[in-house]
Design a protein that fits this description.
By secondary structure, the protein is α/β, with parallel strands linked by helices. It has two domains: 2-217 and 431-450, 3-Deoxy-D-manno-octulosonic-acid transferase, N-terminal domain (Rossmann fold); 227-428, 3-Layer(aba) Sandwich (Rossmann fold), CATH 3.40.50. It is built from 18 helices and 14 strands. A seven-stranded parallel beta sheet has the order 3-2-1-4-5-6-7, sandwiched between helices. Strands 10-11-9-8-12-13-14 form a seven-stranded parallel beta sheet, with helices on both faces. Residues 38-223 form the 3-deoxy-D-manno-octulosonic-acid transferase N-terminal domain.
């Protein structure tokens, strides 16, 4: 029965291929990275890559350790794991796969000589077969949430251990997996091991069929912000005439919410200007810094701010220091440590619209207190722990968030206390990266022992 279901699923995925290609073409208009190496998504690789792939006689410690990090957040988690994994496997070669352009761009920073980076294969039997035949990984490590039925089934047939690391599953995703249990349950059950972030994640994962072999915590607690970026941000913060409030990793719709709050709290422009504009000449109590989650939205967010009458200065245009403006726009990738160093307080993007929130741990590691909205279901445990530790505040909506962040930014004593709690909070929960790396090493040893002579 399962084989029939898998065949029907494979047919559906194959029929959806033209839709995938159309989506890639559209995304490439704003993010050119989606137009790069498209044949890789279907298991077709250029001839020079043959010399990078291991032969069947290659020693086990020289074969590929495959990590799949679909997007930016997962790639950053993979970077944390790699810092612990490489010393344990000094001869390892990294095979790094992604599904998004931002993930691939970030992943380039992790590569060493001999490593390979390609797109995740589209989940058809042919593409998956060609991918595994090309690279023959010793183990596959899926980061956080990515489960693909054909990929799992093919790894089982080839006796390649496939694990889910830093695993999380929220209630909405569990409900979806249960509705499609005829397809998802065998996929979860086919994983060699699952290492969950929290006990709640572990319970939900078991409920959909996964074998949970450990609860290690969240890898992202082991993040170490770049000292150079933090120092630059703090130097700019010290030079700012006003305390800096960051709208961090904002998602579509949240900037409009924020602007609407500012319109209500700031005198409007003269009648000769747009009736919905904010008077940019009015002195504001804080310096606003907005960093959108997705780079394709940088221009859009600038237009929104300017349509509201605000002067915008973009990070990409700064030289010695930020230019004077009503809003600083963070339009760079890989510099969140700088932005958290620059900010006195951060509003957590993704938590004011019903999107599940973004990762707050990086802010806390940088000593930046967080004000979050009501929607943090993607990081529910981290959000609860941060609130309990006094490192974050919860508010009901954007209006309360703006008020709370501005008040905190202008209260140096309270702000310093929360900043200290942020650092202590992250220190307390470190250790998942080493535990995960040791578990990977154990799975590799078990896989070698299980191989037929």
């Amino acid at each position: 029965m399962h084989q029939l279901i898998l065949w029907l699923y494979s047919l559906a995925v194959w029929l959806a291929t033209p839709l995938l290609l159309r989506k890639l073409r559209r995304r490439a208009l704003t993010e050119p990275g989606y137009a790069v190496a498209v044949p890789e998504r279907f298991g077709h690789y250029p001839p020079p890559m043959d010399s990078l792939s291991p032969s069947s006689e290659t020693e086990a410690d020289e074969q590929f350790i495959w990590i799949h990090a679909v997007s930016l957040g997962e790639t950053r988690a993979a970077a944390i794991l790699l810092k612990e994994l490489r010393p344990l496997l000094p001869g390892m070669r990294l095979l790094l796969t992604h599904g998004t352009a931002t993930g691939r761009a970030e992943g380039e920073k992790l590569l060493l000589p001999g490593d390979v980076q390609v797109w995740q294969p589209w989940d058809t039997p042919g593409a998956v077969r060609r991918f595994l035949r090309q690279f023959r990984p010793s183990i596959g490590i899926l980061m956080e949430t990515e489960i693909w039925p054909n990929l799992v089934a093919a790894c089982r047939r080839r006796r390649i251990p496939l694990v889910l690391a830093n695993a999380r599953l929220n209630e909405k995703s569990r409900a979806g997996a249960r509705r499609l249990g005829w397809l998802s349950r065998p996929a979860y059950a086919g994983l060699s091991a699952v290492w969950a972030q929290t006990e709640d994640d572990a319970a939900r994962l078991r409920d959909v069929g996964a074998h949970v072999a450990g609860v290690f915590g969240n890898l992202k607690f082991d993040v170490v912000p770049s000292p150079a970026l933090q120092a630059q941000g703090r130097a700019w913060r010290a030079a700012s005439a006003r305390p800096v409030v960051l709208l961090a990793s904002s998602r579509e719709g949240e900037e409009a919410m924020w602007l609407e709050v500012l319109k209500q709290k700031t005198p409007l422009a003269p009648a000769s200007q747009s009736p919905t504009a904010i008077n940019s000449g009015v002195s504001q109590s804080v310096q606003w810094l907005v960093v959108p989650r997705h780079p394709q939205r940088f221009d859009e967010v600038q237009r929104l701010c300017e349509a509201a009458g605000l002067r915008v200065s973009r990070r990409s245009q700064w030289t010695a220091q930020p230019d004077s403006a009503d809003v600083w726009l963070g339009d760079s990738l890989g510099e969140m440590a700088l932005y958290y160093g620059l900010a006195h307080v951060a509003l957590l993007g993704g938590s004011f619209a019903p999107l599940g929130g973004q990762n707050l741990i990086e802010a806390a590691a940088g000593g930046c207190p967080v004000v979050m909205g009501p929607h943090t279901f993607n990081f529910a445990e981290a959000a609860r722990l941060a609130i309990d530790a006094g490192a974050a505040l919860r508010v009901a909506d954007m209006a309360e968030g703006v008020a709370a962040a501005a008040a905190l930014a202008q209260d140096p004593q309270r702000r310093r206390a929360l900043s200290e709690r942020c650092v202590a909070f992250t220190e307390e929960h470190r250790g998942a990266a080493l535990d995960t790396a040791l578990a990977v090493l154990q799975r590799l040893r078990e896989a070698v022992d299980d191989r037929p002579d």
